[in-house]
Amino acid sequence: MKTPITIRQELPQDHTNVYKLIRAAFASVEESDHSEQDLVERLRHSSSFIPELSLVAETGQGELVGHVLLTRIRIINDAQTFPSLAVAPLSVQPSWQRQGIGSVLIREAHLRAAALGYGSAVLLGHPGYYPRFGYLPAHRFGIRFPFDASADCCMAIELLPDGLKGVQGKVEYDPAFGI
Asked: What is the pLDDT of residues 119-130, one digit of tens each?
C-alpha cells in the first residue's frame, strides 16, 4: 500500500464521498449495471442495514479509498429461516486497486460480523477473488440465489465455526436490492 490505511465505521458525513468512490470503482466493470452506489443509498435506509458493518478504508490524509457493506439477509426453506449477511458491494477507488485494500476491508468486515454474532455471509462475486477469504460455492451448502448467475459466482462463507451447519434454502434479500 502507498500509505497506512485505517478501517473504520462509515459515518453520515462520509456518504457523499462513499457514493463517488463506489461509482468510480464500478465505472469500468463490464458485469456491473453501474448502480451499486444507489444500492448502498437504499440499503442505508432499509431495515437490513447494520451501521457497524458499513466500513471505509481511509488514508492518513483522510482520503476514503475503499468501502464494504454487509447487510442482513435470510436463507429460507419450507421449514426454517436462517439469518445471514450479504456482502454488497466491496469497492476500492480505482487508483488504489490491487494494493490489498479490498482484502483488508473484507477481512475486517468478517471479524466485525462474527463479533456481532453473525455466522455466515453470502455474495455474488468474482470466483477468482473471493475464495482466498474462505468463500465456497453456495450450492455446496445447499444455498440457492434468487436469480440466474453462474454457480461459481454465488458464494458463501462461515464466519463462525459451523455457521452454515444445517443451513439450506434460498437467499432472500431486502427489497432495497430490487431482486
From this structure: 999 999 999 999
> Which residue segments constitute the domains of the chain, with CATH numbers given?
5-177 (3.40.630.30)
Nearest-angstrom CA–CA distance, 49 and 151:
26
Reported pTM: 0.95
Q: For residue 47, with 0-12 CB atoms within 10 Å meaning exposed, 13-18 middle and 19 or more buried, which class applies?
A: exposed
In this predicted structure, the answer to whether residue 71 has a pLDDT above a threshold of 90 is yes
> Around Cβ 177, how many Cβ atoms within 10 Å?
19
Asked if residue 131 has a cis previous peptide bond (ω within 30° of 0), the answer is: no
Which residues, at least 6 apart from 130, have a Cβ–Cβ distance to it below 8 Å? 106, 123, 155
Task: Say which residue the cell 431486502 belongs to.
Answer: 174
